[in-house]
Write a structure and sequence with these properties.
By secondary structure, the protein is mainly β. It contains two helices and 19 strands. It has helices at about 30-35, 180-190; strands at about 50, 55-60, 70-80, 85-90, 95-100, 105-110, 115-120, 125-130, 135-140, 150-160, 165-175, 195, 205-210, 220-225, 235, 250, 260-265, 280-285, 290-295. Strands 1-2-3-9-6 form a five-stranded antiparallel beta sheet. It is globular. Residues about 1-35 have low confidence and may be disordered.
Length: about 300
């Protein structure tokens, strides 16, 4: 399993998840945190966690006429007031890590990410989920005719006033048959940002991106077309997990019907160049989300 480094925006390293090294405790409280649905069923594994958080696998029905992939999800339950992180955590934090190596008859697993939100944390801005979340999965069998058993070891971080590591294990047979989890899994899939090109989209679109090299550090301006009356947030990711771009901030000066964001060109790993780098922009409103890849000029 790959060990992921903490993402730190200098100079805030000293403020970083100060107790993340503390071993998560309280598994004895798991029974107190359990709801009536904790028992394993054919379309959901048992919950594994404690009073602060727990996770399980759920199964979805196979799309009609499509032999692969199988649909599943990782459901993370959070105690009110706690949050966990997106694939890019922002100013500080640790994204979830997944180990599916114990699975049977599984060739590949793709993790999908529902639209996240910006979360204030100890004077920083992180990116993640402050409510229970389902991460949809696309599971490709090694052999379509054989049974599939999905096994996961999940490492993630949860934060309230303090941050602690968490780990869950789960196993579930995937048949592709009708599932009582389908409505909830489909709702999570609908929250995964649509992948569109620059300028494409209907009511929500990344309209324009330009680089400015004036006075201080070079910066990128992004203009987003947003439905009337809607609020929007924007996140920027580098081409690899070693990049640590600042979170875009809203700025004035956008033309009518657009909202403008700015982020400085900072956070590239040593030796990397900004020119030509493939940056991923994710724009999120209450009812929609898009993901737009762009090459920096």
């Amino acid at each position: 399993m790959t060990v992921h480094r903490l993402r730190v925006r200098p100079p805030v390293a000293a403020m970083l998840l100060v107790v993340l090294g503390v071993v998560a405790t309280g598994r004895a409280c798991a029974a107190d945190a359990a709801a009536a649905d904790d028992a394993s069923t054919w379309d959901a594994s048992t919950w594994d966690g404690d009073a602060r958080s727990a996770a399980r696998l759920i199964a979805g029905a196979r799309p009609a006429g499509q032999p692969a992939p199988l649909r599943a999800g990782i459901e993370i339950r959070l105690k009110p007031g706690w949050h966990t992180y997106w694939r890019y955590p922002g100013d500080a934090g640790v994204p979830p890590r997944f180990d599916f190596s114990g699975s049977q008859n599984v060739k590949a697993v793709e993790v999908l990410w529902p639209a996240p939100q910006r979360l204030p944390e100890a004077g920083l801005n992180t990116i993640g989920y402050e409510r229970d979340v389902i991460l949809p999965l696309r599971v490709i069998p090694q052999e379509a005719a054989r049974p599939v058993t999905l096994t996961i070891k999940l490492d993630y971080a949860i934060c309230e006033k303090l941050c602690v590591p968490a780990q869950s294990k789960a196993e579930l047979a995937l048949t592709g048959g009708p599932s009582a989890q389908d409505p909830r899994l489909a709702a999570a899939e609908a929250r995964v940002p649509r992948k569109v090109a620059l300028g494409a989209g209907q009511t929500l679109a990344v309209h324009a991106v330009r680089r400015e090299d004036g006075g201080g550090r070079p910066r990128v301006l992004v203009e987003v077309a947003v439905p009337a009356g809607a609020s929007v947030d924007l996140f920027a990711e580098g081409p690899t997990e070693e990049w640590s771009l600042p979170l875009p901030v809203a700025v004035n000066g956008a033309p009518a019907g657009l909202q403008r964001f700015m982020f400085e060109l900072d956070g590239a790993p040593p030796g990397a160049k900004y020119e030509g780098a493939l940056i991923n922009l994710t724009a999120v409103t209450d009812g929609d989300a898009i993901e737009v890849p762009i090459h920096l000029d």
